[in-house]
Amino acid sequence: MSNLPRIAWIGLGIMGSPMSENLIKAGYDVTGFTLEQDKLDRLVAAGGTAAGSIAEAVRDADVVITMVPASPQVEAVAYGPGGILANVRPGTLLVDMSSITPQTSVDLAKAAAEKGVRVLDAPVSGGEAGAVEAVLSVMVGGEQADFDTALPLFEALGRTVVLCGPHGSGQTVKAANQLIVAVNIQACAEAVVFLEKSGVDLKAALEVLGGGLAGSTVLARKKDNFLNRDFAPGFRIDLHHKDMGIVTDAARTVGAALPVGAVVAQLVASLRAQGDGGLDHSALLRAVERLSGAGV
Q: In what residue span(s) does the 3-hydroxyisobutyrate dehydrogenase-like NAD-binding domain sit (predicted)?
């Protein structure tokens, strides 16, 4: 019998599946629930247990982890008679690793406290590759004692784990992260089009750029996407569109101007409007190509 806490994992998508599997590899007992049977089958094949409902997944858990697309989905799995708060034991730690609005996290923590449930907001950065390789950055909001409890779990999932402040702080930092990533991808996409139209060897150019001050994790991770025009989703445009809405709204609330971010948010929105929402966010390159006269 393991002395490690029993984990319930809710949401087994592009990020959730490899992350839950990394906990299994680290020796944790993971029971999962999601709406897609093939994802449950994948969890079982990795050594986890499939549950037939949220209530079944969480009833014996010491820690519940949620990884779902947005605030409405977090609220759907957390609240109501079939939700997490109605079915977990008092004292359970609920760790929401979704990317949602800071206010949703604050409200969830307040509602959970009334049920005797502790909460951390702990969104991540690193995309599908970071999830698979267990090298994610985890930005956490909540109480120090709860962070200390969850730290071994986070260390099985990521390389950089930081408590950023009280409830909602993790989501605020994640919003800033998504702003930086979107603007960085946009700059890389513009550089790619500029280089190709100038007749430069793109592979050579990106290699040397990556070794200088222009180098970044974004360029390193997305270089092959740009070179091969491979936009299979690691992080979908649809989700980045949602995140740009979060950061734009949060910035307006606190009075922070985001002039470049606002432009990139509109470019992300334009990609969705043109049917590219299911592609990887490196598909911002397609928007630049269209603006530059390419028949994409």
A: 168-287
Instruction: Give Cα 9 to chain centroid, integer Å.
Output: 15
DSSP state of 231: -
User: What values do phi and psi take at 227, rounded to 5?
Assistant: -65, -40
Which segments of the chain does DSSP mark as H helices, in order? 16-25, 37-45, 54-58, 71-78, 84-87, 102-113, 127-133, 144-157, 169-197, 202-210, 217-228, 237-254, 259-273, 284-291
Q: What is the rounded average pLDDT of the residues 89-116?
A: 97
Catalytic residue among 25, 39, 115, 174: 174
Query: What is the DSSP annotation of 148-214?
Result: HHHHHHHHHHEEEEEEEESTTHHHHHHHHHHHHHHHHHHHHHHHHHHHHHTT--HHHHHHHHHTSTT
Question: Does 174 qualify as catalytic in the annotation?
Answer: yes
The pTM of this model reads 0.92
pLDDT score of 295 more than 80: no
